[in-house]
Design a protein that fits this description.
- This protein has 384 residues and is of the alpha/beta class.
- It has two domains: 108 residues, Rossmann fold (3-Layer(aba) Sandwich); 225 residues, Vaccinia Virus protein VP39 (Rossmann fold, 3-Layer(aba) Sandwich), CATH 3.40.50.150.
- Helix content is 36%, strand content 21%.
- The protein contains 14 helices and 17 strands.
- The strands form three sheets. It has a seven-stranded mixed beta sheet, with helices on both faces.
- The longest helix is centred in the first third of the chain and has 17 residues.
- The chain is globular.
- It starts with a helix and ends with a strand.
Amino acid sequence: MHRNYVSKLQKILNEREFHPPLSAKDAFEKLNNQQILLYGAGAFGLENYNLFTKYGIKPIAFLDRNAKTGDTKMGIPVYHPNDSDLTMDFRNKCLVFITISLPQDKMKLIKNDLYELGYVNCREAQTMTARQVRFDDVADENPDNNYIKKNQEKIFRAINLMADEESCETYISCIAGHLLRNYDDCVETNFPVQYFDAGIPYKRGLSHFVDCGAYTGDSLQTALQYCDFIEDYVAFEPIPSNFTELSQNVDLLKQKIKRAWLFPCGVDEKTGMAKFSVSASSSAITDNADGELLQLVRLDDALKGFNVTLLKMDIEGAEPAALRGSQNLITQQKPDLAISVYHSVNHYWDIPCMLDDLKLEYRFYLRSHTPATLETILYAVCNK
C-alpha cells in the first residue's frame, strides 16, 4: 500500500524544490480588485476580516443569516444573504469566502443555499487561512529546501506509519497543501464526527476520558452521544472564562458522569507558568510580552496511576511538548489517542514519529475534518 504513496510524496518534494510556493502576501494580492464578502460574522468571520486586511484586502461586507437591517461589524455592513440591497448582478460578480469551520456535508448545504441565491463564486476561507500555519522554530512562512531535506527522513517515515488508505491520502494531501501552499483540492473525511465517529477502531473506549484543551466541554457533550455513561472525565482548560462554562456544563451532565476532575490549566512538557494570547476562537502560548500569564501542568505530574482509555489533545500547537510530558501515562496505560496535528506543518510528521519512538505498537490513522487541512487529527490505537 505504502509504495505508491511514497512515490507521490517524492513528486511533491521534487515539485517544491524546483517551484517554490507563493508567499501569503502574493496569494492575497491576487484578490485585488475583487468585491469580497465574508460569510459568517462571528468569531471566525472577525478573525478572517483581520487576516484579509492584514494583507491589504478589505472585504466590503459580511453575510450572516442572523443579520438585521443596519447591522455593522468592523466598520462594514452585515447583510442577510438575501438582502434586497444585494442585486443579482452583484451576487454574480462578487467573491464569497465562507469563514465558518464546518464538515463537508454542512459546508455543501451552505454553498448550495448561496448558489440558489445567486452567489456563483464561493470558496472556503480556510484555503487562505491555512497559509498561516507555520513550521516550528522557523522564521519564514515557507522554509528553504535545506529545511525540507533535513526533515525528509521523518516525512517519509510518517507516511509508512499510516494504517489505512484514507490516512495515506490525507497525509499526502496535507503535505502537498502546506509544502506547495495550494489548498484547493485537499482531502476531507466523510466520517461525520471528529474524535468520536471518524472510522477509527478504538480499543479502549470512552469510559475514562482525558480532555486536554477542553474549551467549554464541547467534546464531552459529543462523547456522551456515543456512550451512555462516562466513569471518569478529566479536563484541562487554562482560559478562565472557558473553564467557568466548562464547569457549568459538567454540572448539567452530571447524571451521565460518575466522577469529573476539572483543572484550570493547560498541559505542557513541564509544570509551570506561561503567557497566553487569548481570543474568542482560539488561545495559545505566546512569546508576546502582553500575554495573559496562566498555569501549565505536566500530565505525568497531574495523573499518577490513573486509568485512561482516551487521551485527546487540541491545544493550539503545544501537542508535542504535552506528549513529552505524558510519556509515562501513555506507556503505562496505552490509551487510545486523538491528537491535533494541524497547528504546525512539521507536526504531521513529528508527532507520529514521536509516538512511534515509544515502541508501543500503535497504529496510526489521519483524518481531516474540515477543508484545507485544518482540524486534522492523528488517531492512534495500541495493538498491545
